[in-house]
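lol ok so funny story. i was supposed to be doing the assay writeup but got distracted and ended up predicting the structure for this chain instead. priorities right. anyway since i did it might as well share w the group, maybe its usefull for someone
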Amino acid sequence: MKALKTKSIQKLLKVNQHKKITLGLTRTQKALKFINWEKPKSRILTISGTSAKFSILQIFKKILIDNKNSFAATYSPHIKSITERMEINSKLIKINVLKKILNKVYKIPVPLTEFEKLCVAFAEFIKNKKTDYILAEFGLLGRLDAVRALFPKPHIHIVAPIFFDHLHWTKTKKRNLKTLKEIVYEKISFLSADRIYISKQHSRSLKFIKYYLKKNSSKCFYYGRDFWLKKKNDKYFYQDKTRSFQIHSNLLGDFSHENAVIAIKISIDEGIAIPIIKKSLKKISMLLGRVQLIKSGKLRKGMPKSTLIFADGAHNSLSSQRICDFLYQYKNKDLYAIISMIKSKDPSSFLKPFKKFKKIFFTNMKQSNVYPKEQLNKIAKKLNIPSEITKDYYTAIKTVGNKKKAIFLITGSFYYLQDII
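and the output, tada:
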């Protein structure tokens, strides 16, 4: 029965695949009028960027929960179920409720994209709900993203790390400064919020961010100037101009803690007591598909206890560099990756950080726009990265002899994680 419902939802979300999608706010704005959407009275927090958006929101959400704040949230993409895209107070939307809402959205006489339909569905889901906060993750770029149509002037906006991604949506479609400037423009030039928080950025991205925010009337808080992360003796500390305290959590890696400090800074500025923030951080564990250590289940079947398996939805050069840097901290271990990607990504820049891996295995996920594993393998060979094609994850790990010393990373796309986790 569940499979039938899921199929129905896929049909409701289906758009004309042969028609080129044109980005814009007009369609969503028109659709919102059909559901009588009004500006919510909640405090609105939105987030744009290339990576870490979901992780930052999850950490902030945990703090809100311990502070007894109610919230609604929308995320993109999902991993296990489409219901992961919407929640109220940690309760995901039920599949039958989502289907009912999408049926209503489907009947709106406006030709919406899949993401636009989901955004309008989220608006319908929360429009009569009273919550302290609404958290919303932008999808593609930002300036013409449907989330902006819902929340054009949030109280808080977060600029997550920005770097090269979605190059096929840019004018030049090349990895150069002109393209990076265009990406930053699309993600932040339109911002209108009471407060804007800028996370740790690549130096080139930061230069353009400052350029576009220079005349912005919003109050801006920058990582490195107004708040930052300090690491000493493998311990992590939150610091700003007036305070410093150790972060106790189960988060893994420097970049996960960099995500935490921006959530901490916002929480402090929202008036949440530091003892509550510290208490929340202790409860934070690994996030689904984000440096996720697989501890049980079918992926670990027959594996020695010493073997580590990580799943991460990295799909651009910024996120692949970060996950590789994290894994390179493990000494005397053999690193292997099982990778599948979609065609719209840039595999060459994504794969460069994997040069220290013992071997990369390429497979095809269950996506019509999958990047053929044979082509990925050719790219890896040109980069002098040991690699081969494989049927799937299970076939790949069978070829590895000494699994006791092995670390396996499943990565390349959140869509691939949907297939395997």
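The longest helix spans residues 254-269. The longest strand covers residues 43-48.
back to the writeup now i swear
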